[in-house]
Structure formats: structure tokens, C-alpha cells
Amino acid sequence: MKRLGRLKFVGAVATVTVALVSGCTLGGAAVGGYAGNKLTHGSTLGTVGGAVAGGVVGYELGK
User: Fold this and answer.
1) Is residue 30 a contact partner of residue 52, using CB atoms and an 8 Å limit?
2) Locate the Glycine zipper 2TM domain: which residues (predicted)?
3) Closest by alpha carbon to 14, among 32, 39, 40, 41?
């Protein structure tokens, strides 16, 4: 597996894990993870950070 492909896979797994473990809204986490990935040019930390932020926003909007 190429290095970039591996990082995207790790980012996707981290996004799903954060969404499931923290009980955040999956849709918000997915959108946030995608946005974080694009804004940080594929950074795993940016993807995970975006997923957390998006999950929190999704959770708050879903109340």
C-alpha cells in the first residue's frame, strides 16, 4: 500500500472510531473529517481534529 493511501486509510479509521466511541453524530464527524483532511492537505491529525469538531457540532445540532 502506498504511503498516502495508508494515511488516508488511517484517517478514515480514526474518523469512524472517534464518531463511534464518543457518541457524536456520525454525519457531523464525517463532514468534519473530510473538511479537516482537505484543509490540512491530507494530514491525519487534521482529519481526526475535523472529525471531532464536526461530531461535536453535529451532536449539538441534533439535540
Assistant:
1) no
2) 25-62
3) 32
Burial class (CB in 10 A: 0-12, 13-18, 19+), 43: middle
Alpha carbons within 13 A on the beta-carbon side of 49: 10
Predicted confidence (pLDDT) per residue in 15-25, tens digit: 666 655 556 57
Q: Say if residues 62 and 25 touch (Cβ distance below 8 Å).
A: yes
pLDDT digits (tens, 9 = 90+) for 29-48: 888 988 998 999 988 889 88
Dihedral of alpha carbons 51, 56, 61, 63, sign = positive
The whole-angstrom distance between residue 60's C-alpha and the CA centroid of its chain comes to 17
